[in-house]
Amino acid sequence: MTTYTAPLRDMRFLINDVLDYPAHYQSLDNGADATPETVDAILGAAAVYCQQVLAPLNLSGDAEGCHYSDGAVTTPAGFKEAYQQYVDGGWQGLSYPEQYGGQGLPTSLGIFRSELVGAANWSFGMYPGLSLGGINTLIQFGSEALKAQLLPSLVSAQWSSTMCLTEPQCGTDLGQLECKAEPQADGSYRLSGSKIFISAGEHDLTSNIIHIVLARLPDAPAGTRGISLFVVPKFLVGDDGALGERNAVRCDSIEHKMGIRGSATAVLNFAGAHGYLLGEVNQGLHAMFTFMNTARLGTALQGICHAESSFQGALDYARERRSMRALSGTKQPEFSADALIWHPDVRRMLLTQRAIAEGGRAMIYSAGKLADVMFNATVAGDDKTQQAYDEKLGFFTPILKGFLTELGVEAANLGMQVFGGHGYIHEHGMEQIARDARIATLYEGTTGIQALDLLGRKVLLATKGGCVREFTATMIKLAWRHAFKGGPLGAMARQLIKRAAGWNWLTTRIMLRASRDPETVGAASVDYLMYSGYVMMGYFWALQAERAAALIASGEGAESVEFYRAKIDTAEFYFERLLPRADTHYSAALASTHSVMQIDQEHFSFR
After folding, report:
1. I want to staple 318 with a disulfide (CB 3.0 to 4.6 A). Which of 51, 341, 582, 589 is the partner?
2. How far apart are CA 583 and CA 589, in angstroms?
């Protein structure tokens, strides 16, 4: 069984040294209390909880799974007690306004907490994690009455929330949605229909579950233009927030899944359930994107969580397991064989895992700063700032969700590979990480959907390539500081300049082709997303290497010099071994659509 140790040293390096969160927090209206000492204390306490309470339940929760009986779901042994500790610790309200019972700290602190929870036990983390999007959606689109009724119990985590989009006949294509909402004389609605794949849709951890549901009004336009968003509680809620009678929503089954077995994925049936409108009529998809963007950023974290967990398990095993002698000569003569870690290919796998985990962490933590500003503007009602930072974060989101989850699966599989045959055995925990990681590329929009969102909506339609030009300008600014120097930083800087130019040129060429061939975007999008991800991660590895080199040169933190050298070494590995993968994606993205579209659909069966 693998153990989990919170990567606090790396988190602190990013927060304090690379991304300068202390200065960032002081610029925020709600950041004054987020001093380095307070942040460090929060991280330390979260680490203890995750290491001692959640991690020990990960393997057992997977083995037991959830239990369904007559509409009720029981979570694995230990989950309920662990959840109560989560509530008692005030962890859910960390980044929410004090008026709703939260601690009023910046949003990014919740991201740091979510990473620790997810890496220790992703299945458990989905229960409070899904609620974050519900809270955010209520804050932005809920009436004052709904906020007063629902938010205090959601922010305290005494209640949880879900996102109800998918139906049996539609997933991504929400234009096919059939769930109905009938208006009532008192201003409420009655919802009827079925929803599937609802994470945390039913469970025994909280006294109430607040469902956020997409549905159609009787006179709604067809397609996505006719979708509205509703709040549907499991138990009705009085004006004072007290629980009333059971609502007409029932869990009819839970799914038997490949992974995340400790998380209940429910089929929910609404049979005239009482609901309340969120936002404007027929504007539900716009409001739901608040929930979905939160969920997608959270899912991007899953890639990092599983890369980190798998790396930790593989590293421990590679240090202890012995096989053959190192190719360059005996390294541990006191033993009959050398440890796996002396073999180059094992090192390649470990370094790939580490590069993914630490490079991805930097990408997400950088996006966290944008989320801080956006959420503050949302709470303050500053629509202009909220919109501007939503667009900035919107560029990051599909790259983070699509690219990092794909690499998270790779890292999890590499962890199994380091273990060899032992990696396929449940008791070691590595195969569970691989199974748990696999869903991340599927839910909250598959990699293909994220790629279409990035290339089709964010890059081509919304900004005509402007978002890429803006980010590559940041890349070049960093690179220019080192482009004429020798050593690792100089080599990385010159690569960044080359990649920045390549990203812009790739974007322009696809834009021109798409004007002539409508299939271009669909055929090129996944390769474009992966190219974008590798280049973006290269920037964040160069940024970490720059800061590590500066700290070594200044003599600051002399006790951490080996940590800083390891950062530079890992950055070199990334630039030499992983970033070249971008070249293949570049070429594939520019390949003709003919090779994809020429085969007649009937010919797929001719084998």
Report:
1. 341
2. 10
